[in-house]
Design brief:
This protein has about 120 residues and is mainly α. The protein has two domains: about 35 residues; about 80 residues, Orthogonal Bundle (Multidrug-efflux Transporter Regulator, Chain: A, Domain 2), CATH 1.10.1660. Helix content is about 60%, strand content about 5%. The protein contains five helices and three strands, in the order αβααββαα. A hairpin with a 6-residue loop joins β2 and β3. The protein is rod-shaped. The chain starts with a helix and ends in a 5-residue tail after the last helix. The relative contact order is 0.08.
Length: about 120
Amino acid sequence: MNNPFDLLQEQLNRIENKLGEFDTFIHRGISNNLPEADHPITIQQVSEQTKLSVATLYGYVSRNEIPFSKRPNSKRLWFSRMEITNWLLEGRKKTIAEISNEANTYLKIKGGNAK
């Protein structure tokens, strides 16, 4: 007679394999409709792209400081490579020349003395 626990483990393994196949199928379906530059990427790939640790990225995710996607009732996080690039560029600091040009433009519009 077969051990019921072995049968249960075998069934769970089959279910896990099917879920993995389904996840791969869904991911490929999503990816095929997007430009190459915007395929969903994992947190490990974001870590490689940004040179930030996975732990740091999880902190940003928990505080909603980084754009990410998460399916309901799922633990997996997905990121858009394009959104991550834009997120990184949000922290760009203006040069002195850019600030000066903006100040001169502002003063011309408001009627101040621009040099």
